Amino acid sequence: MASLRYRTMLPAAVAIFAGLAAGATITTFDIPNAGTGQYQGTLPESIDGMNNIVGFWVDGNNVYHGFVRASDGAITTFDAPGAGTAANQGTLAYTLNGLGEIAGTSIDGRGESHGLLRKRDGNIILFEAAGATGPGQGTVAGNITNVDEMAGYYLDQNFVYHGFVRASNGAITTFDAPDAGTGMFQGTLPDFGTGLNNSGAIAGSALDANNVYQGFLRAVDGTFTSISVPGAGTGQYQGTLPASINSAGAITGSYINGKLVYHGFLLAAGGAITKFDVPGAFNTVPQTISETGATCGYYTDFSGVAHGFVRSVDGFFTKFDVPGAGTGPGQGTSAVTINAYGVVEGYYEDANNAYHGFLRTP
Question: In angstroms, rounded to a whole number, what is the distance separating the alpha carbons of residues 236 and 53?
Fold first, then answer.
């Protein structure tokens, strides 16, 4: 399959801030040619153990493009074959494995999404899950293991979500969580980025027939275990939202109470649940649990501004803001993933609502 990707070794715009948040170093970066308007810019999505980062950037025409930022700061950008070139079309990279292979999606010129696997040599393979073939529908790959197993979701012709697993040989198995609704925009949603661990277990949530989120764990053999955090609400758009699973089977995520406030939780591999809130937070939203059990995410204060946090294995919180982050409602700092060495990547939204990437090294 011919590739329309392109490569640039131009240096990203970089600023380094030292001595922040207990001696951490924060490096900010922008992809060359990323847009600078509202909701444009650079959006990192995942980091590996070598500090390589993948994500996507939004250009001045609101078109998406994938990128890889190597540990030395060199940036490679790419576009999938057939990716659309109009607003809200293009290529989105979501995660990478330890071999440098990437999972994501390509949105074509009619608005249909296609699953994407980018091999280490830059070759891009597109694939579809059954029943996902129309504009506004399609296949989105959000996870990849070190043996090329992938997981994600597809949106069918009735606009219902379903999960899938793609084996390394390309065979696709689709699945629905037991509590998944069958109405428009209900269904099964595996987590993105770190929702599939290297053992093949998948964490995620199902939006049921009453529009309540029901957490789940899908084992390698296809059996489901329900995840419900005590205190989670039972009304519309309340419930339990797992966000990440590590190789030991520990899961982090959020639960939404009856007042639509988000709180964090940690589900140990043995089944014990620990609930937590960042001190001073209105909403606490964990995003990722590392292989060593640390978590990262963001919290919003009572003014609606986002701030990054890291929660250590022993429950200690480190809060941080990236210099340059906006201080208005909906702006601020969002930590997205943390690797086994405690290095965090994410993005910040500035005062003009443009996005920029960052790397935080402890």
Answer: 35
Burial readout 41-68 (b: 16 or more C-beta within 10 A, e: otherwise): bbbbbbbbeebbbbbbbbbeebbbbbbb
3-state helix, strand, coil in the chain (%, to 5): 0, 50, 50
The two three-digit tokens of residue 45, written as one number:
């999505």
Question: What are 171-185's pLDDT values in tens digits?
Answer: 999 999 999 999 999
Measured CA to CA, the distance from residue 210 to residue 214 in angstroms comes to 11
pLDDT tens digits for range 32-49:
999 999 999 999 999 999
Distance from chain centroid for Cα 176: 20
For the entire predicted model, the pTM comes to 0.92
Q: What is the DSSP letter of 195?
A: S
Q: How far apart are CA 286 and CA 38, in angstroms?
A: 25
Nearest partner of 143 among 124, 122, 165, judged by Cα: 165
The residue behind tokens 């601020």 is 332
Q: Using the 8-state DSSP alphabet, how is residue 108 labeled?
A: B
Rounded to the nearest 5°, which phi and psi values hold at 276?
-155, 155
Within 13 A of 276's CA, how many CA atoms are on the CB side? 25
User: In this model, does residue 21 exceed pLDDT 70?
Assistant: no
Amino acid at 308: G
Contacts of 59 (CB under 8 A, 6+ apart): 33, 34, 35, 40, 65
Strand partners, 104: 93, 116
